[in-house]
């Protein structure tokens, strides 16, 4: 019974370490945003659209 409990605790600690490593790697990822000049989905008339909506 003691061996099963020790094995279970080791597995839990291992999963916890892997989880923390994945979260840390995700938060340290540098996200980038394309500038609007180089975005093919924007036709450049965003300012005109904003004026028409008001």
Automatic annotation (TrEMBL):
Keywords: Membrane, Transmembrane, Transmembrane helix
Annotated transmembrane regions: 6-24
InterPro entries for this protein: YtzI-like
Region ranges (Disordered): 34-54
Superkingdom of this protein's organism: Bacteria
Organism per entry: Pseudalkalibacillus berkeleyi
Protein name: YtzI protein
Keyword Transmembrane: yes
């Amino acid at each position: 019974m003691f061996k099963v409990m020790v094995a279970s605790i080791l597995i839990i600690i291992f999963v916890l370490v892997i989880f923390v490593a994945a979260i840390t790697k995700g938060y340290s990822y540098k996200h980038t945003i394309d500038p609007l000049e180089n975005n093919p989905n924007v036709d450049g008339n965003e300012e005109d659209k904003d004026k028409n909506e008001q």
